[in-house]
């Protein structure tokens, strides 16, 4: 695959022409006038050196590698239950014994796999998550976890986020991938569709960003406009160039610098004064945070911004210690309808072959239900890969309900780090050793078709 | 205060409060009316933010925030959250075991961590796990201890009206597991009182609490000697919080490098501090959604582990949200620069002095001072002194920009 660093260096020789072509194609004169100050500012500010570099980096990467694969991770917070999400139809008797009050009465069968899905996973366009499975666009990973799982949310989540089974502070696994294979200049290469940056994308040296929408990213100050405002923001950039002397100061200065460059890069895509949204989708999304985030994301992915790794956190409560039937059902409805709309949108925009989505949660739940109509933290969870180019089907062994471990938990049938290593190599085209320690020993799983 | 009274007197005032009223200044309003914390969206947040702005017991507010993060409870009914908040404030600097007992029987917590209705038939492990991992120990226990503690903690039952309204919590001996449990290698017919005793007497508790509180006030890692000393002090005072916090606040490391602040302000600290230092009282409900965008919406921490503090507060998005907060600070109230209010022809030094005085003289780095001093003349470089209305307009804009950058820039995010 193309090395973005290399592409970036190549680009500098012809940067001015390319930058002009980028601005010309993306931002017509009419649009500049229509959007008024915000977009005008972006062009003005782009004359300042560091911002030119940011714009260049984004467009250069997009131009040099227009088909560069993108990995989107969707996190289901709380520890999603396997048994009531992907129902073991072929072990139904044992399942019903373990889940007398919770069992899904009529799961929707997944072909001849011996499995069925919670009916809420049929919600959404084209039959929701089940429809995607039937179309070969989902590879299910039942029993995913790691050996001797830690049943604390925070430990387990931290392990998944960092790709390391250690409680020490570390960069995120995709942040580390960007440190290794990403750009030094483009903060949009790794984005969290959220207010805060996901620990999955925490990097040691490469810039990454948290973004909610191009409009929200823009800066303005009440009653300060025109040149006066532009000069004020130049001073902002100058202040933010201060040399950091501690981790806290480094965060504050980098945050100020990068927030400004994200605003400038996204300025051409803000809604105009007539309300026209350059990122508008032709697909109808459901309500909710997950859907809103995926909708903005699909629009951004269609632009030449050099986005490579994305994190999205789902709404919904998957930590179902009580009222599991209701809460899990609501959560899965949102997940199904939102992901189905996202997939349809990507296909509609003609970029689906570039995007692979990994859906994950920090652990599974106990097979035996508790007395509060819920389930406690357990092992052997659920994840899936989604996209037009994934290997569809059931990619890992479904845990045997008659062979629980010594703690009465499900057996772990696939290590999540094996999936990470496989995605890095088969999808992102990077050797896994640079990102996952001891990657050679954890094996691989075919996840891309 | 510090300069006038000295460190010792200031610390005494912080820890014990003065004689005067607890709150000074006007009560909070939205659109000219009093707030309704129980019924109106976001007014619970305003209620607490107002306390942070007007309180004459700022440490009590800061410690209430510490405990809200430590015993993070989220998304429960507003009256229960406000009740918990008052409980935490009342016990913020008292005995940890008493506080833990109050937390363990607090309705919002019981409902949040599913301890309510956990009974002997199938004990719910949620509270037992977080009690050890996040509230008291962090390490030094195993899965077996959690399961056994979950049994000992059974017996709390919730009561609901026919209409589905929460009516309260009671303790039912019927639902409590009265059998023998084995926790931390001790055996007994333990109940919830015993669990509180066992975890607070556990050898890992004092070091855990010392490190957590240290990290709340000081970014530099705790050295071995200070840690030992503070652990001893905490135990000597029978797990009282006030002497421990007092010792941390008096520690020389808190005063090292005061001219190079390195702790990222939590959004609430940033906002309450800016309101306090600029003399603005609560007169707008925008603060509630702005806090949400900055990543710290009180009463709704993201999980039972509370918020991620330190550099994790900062992202491109939260930086932009802090800028929004300052937009709201300067658009009305004492910081607002009305058209025509800035004298024309001020020297750069006078402009700077005027902006510093209005913003409560925040700390700024030499880079910032240099950038702002260079910015001032740029407002006037393409205006002739004879263009009087343009000169006036630029003078006003210069003041607005300076005040904004002093409060929104990266320096203002640090303390």
Can you put this structure into words, describing what you see?
The complex is a heterodimer of chains A (449) and B (415). Chain A has 449 residues and is an alpha/beta fold. Chain A folds into two domains: 4-66 and 225-268, no CATH class; 70-179 and 277-442, Alkaline Phosphatase, subunit A (3-Layer(aba) Sandwich). In chain A, 39% of the residues lie in helices and 10% in strands. Chain A has helices at 4-12, 15-26, 29-35, 37-45, 49-64, 92-98, 128-134, 153-162, 173-181, 214-217, 226-240, 247-266, 289-301, 324-348, 416-426; strands at 70-75, 86-87, 108-109, 116-117, 138-140, 144-145, 190-192, 209-210, 309-313, 355-360, 364-365, 377-378, 384-386, 393-394, 414-415. In chain A, strands 8-7-9-1-10-13-5-14 form an eight-stranded mixed β-sheet, with helices on both faces. In chain A, strands 2-4-3 form a three-stranded antiparallel β-sheet, with no helix packed on it. In chain A, helix 1 (4-12) packs across helix 5 (49-64), helix 3 (29-35) packs across helix 4 and helix 13 (289-301) runs parallel beside helix 14. Chain A starts with a helix and ends in a 23-residue tail after the last helix. Mean pLDDT of chain A is 85; it is low at 1-52. With 415 residues, chain B is mainly α. Chain B folds into two domains: 2-255, no CATH class; 348-413, no CATH class. In chain B, the strands form three sheets. Chain B has a two-stranded antiparallel ribbon. In chain B, strands 3-4 form a two-stranded antiparallel ribbon. In chain B, a hairpin with a 2-residue loop joins strand 5 (181-183) and strand 6 (186-188). The longest helix of chain B has 21 residues, at 388-408. Chains A and B meet through strand 8, helix 11 and helix 12 of A and helix 7, helix 14, helix 15, helix 17 and helix 18 of B.
């Amino acid at each position: 695959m193309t090395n973005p660093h290399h592409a970036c260096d190549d680009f500098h020789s012809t940067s001015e022409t390319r930058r002009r072509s980028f601005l010309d194609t993306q931002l017509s004169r009419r649009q500049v006038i229509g959007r008024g100050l915000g977009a005008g500012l972006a062009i003005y500010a782009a004359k300042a050196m560091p911002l030119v570099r940011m714009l260049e980096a984004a467009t250069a990467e997009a131009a040099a590698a227009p088909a560069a694969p993108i990995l989107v991770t969707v996190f289901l917070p709380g520890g999603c239950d396997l048994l009531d999400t992907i129902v073991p139809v072929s072990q139904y008797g044992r399942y019903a014994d373990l889940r007398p009050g919770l069992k899904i009465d009529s799961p929707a069968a997944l072909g001849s796999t011996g499995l069925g899905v919670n009916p809420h996973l049929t919600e959404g366009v084209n039959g929701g998550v089940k429809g995607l499975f039937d179309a070969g666009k989902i590879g299910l990973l039942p029993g995913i976890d790691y050996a001797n799982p830690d049943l604390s949310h925070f430990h387990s989540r931290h392990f998944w986020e960092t790709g390391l089974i250690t409680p020490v502070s570390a960069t995120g696994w995709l942040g580390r991938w960007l440190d290794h294979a990403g750009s030094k200049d483009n903060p949009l290469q790794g984005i969290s569709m959220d207010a805060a940056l996901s620990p999955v994308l925490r990097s040691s040296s490469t810039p990454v960003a948290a973004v909610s929408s191009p409009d929200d990213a823009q800066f303005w100050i009440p009653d300060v406009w025109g040149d006066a405002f532009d000069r004020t923001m130049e001073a902002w950039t100058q202040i933010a160039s201060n040399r950091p002397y501690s981790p806290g100061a480094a965060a504050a200065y980098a945050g100020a610098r990068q927030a400004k460059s994200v605003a400038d890069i996204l300025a051409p895509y803000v809604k105009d004064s007539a309300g026209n949204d350059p990122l508008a989708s032709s697909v109808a999304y459901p309500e909710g945070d997950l859907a809103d985030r995926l909708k903005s994301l699909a629009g951004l992915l269609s632009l030449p911004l050099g986005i490579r790794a994305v994190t999205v956190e789902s709404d919904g409560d998957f930590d179902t210690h009580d009222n599991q039937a209701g809460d899990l059902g609501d959560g899965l409805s949102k997940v199904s309808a939102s992901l189905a709309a996202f997939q349809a949108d990507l296909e509609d925009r003609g970029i689906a072959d570039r995007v692979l989505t990994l859906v994950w949660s920090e652990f599974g739940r106990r097979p035996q239900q508790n007395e509060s109509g819920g389930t406690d933290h357990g092992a052997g969870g659920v994840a899936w890969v989604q996209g037009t180019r994934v290997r569809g089907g059931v990619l890992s062994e479904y845990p045997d309900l008659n062979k629980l471990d010594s703690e009465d938990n499900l057996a772990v049938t696939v290590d999540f780090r094996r999936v990470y290593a496989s995605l890095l190599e088969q999808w992102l085209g990077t050797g896994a050793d640079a990102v996952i320690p001891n990657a050679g020993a954890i094996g691989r799983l075919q996840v891309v078709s | 205060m510090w300069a006038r009274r000295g460190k010792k007197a200031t610390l005494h005032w912080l820890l014990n409060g003065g004689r005067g009223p607890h709150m000074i200044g006007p009560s909070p309003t939205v659109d000219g009316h009093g707030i309704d914390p129980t019924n109106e969206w976001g007014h619970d947040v305003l209620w607490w933010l107002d306390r942070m702005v007007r309180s004459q017991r700022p440490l009590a507010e800061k410690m209430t925030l510490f405990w809200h993060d430590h015993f993070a409870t989220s998304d429960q009914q507003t009256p229960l959250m406000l009740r918990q908040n008052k409980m935490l404030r009342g016990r913020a600097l008292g005995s940890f075991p008493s506080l833990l007992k109050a937390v363990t029987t607090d309705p919002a917590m019981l409902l949040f961590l599913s301890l309510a209705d956990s009974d002997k038939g199938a004990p719910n492990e949620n509270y037992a796990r977080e009690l050890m991992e996040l509230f008291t120990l962090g390490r030094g226990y195993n899965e077996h201890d959690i399961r056994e503690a979950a049994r000992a903690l059974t017996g709390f039952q919730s009561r609901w009206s026919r209409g589905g309204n929460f009516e309260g919590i009671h303790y039912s001996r019927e639902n409590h597991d009265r059998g023998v449990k084995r926790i931390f290698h001790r055996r007994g017919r333990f109940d919830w009182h015993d669990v509180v005793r066992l975890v607070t007497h556990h050898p890992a508790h004092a070091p855990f609490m010392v490190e957590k509180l240290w990290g709340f006030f000081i970014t530099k890692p705790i050295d071995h000697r200070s840690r030992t000393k503070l652990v001893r002090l905490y135990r000597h005072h029978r797990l009282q919080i006030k002497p421990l916090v007092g010792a941390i606040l008096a520690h020389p490391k808190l005063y090292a490098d005061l001219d190079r602040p390195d702790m990222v302000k939590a959004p609430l600290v940033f906002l309450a501090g800016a309101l306090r230092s600029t003399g603005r009282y609560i007169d707008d409900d925008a603060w509630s959604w702005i806090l949400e965008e900055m990543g710290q919406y009180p009463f709704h921490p993201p999980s039972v582990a509370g918020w991620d503090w330190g550099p994790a507060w900062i992202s491109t998005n939260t930086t932009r949200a802090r800028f929004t907060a300052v937009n709201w600070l300067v658009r009305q109230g004492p910081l607002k620069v009305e058209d025509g209010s800035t004298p024309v022809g001020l020297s750069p030094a006078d402009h700077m002095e005027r902006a510093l005085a209005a913003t409560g003289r925040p700390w700024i780095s030499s880079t910032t001072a240099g950038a702002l001093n260079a910015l001032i003349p740029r407002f006037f470089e393409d205006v002739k002194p004879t263009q009087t209305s343009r000169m006036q307009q630029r003078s006003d804009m210069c003041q607005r920009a300076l005040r904004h950058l002093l409060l929104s820039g990266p320096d203002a995010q640090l303390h």
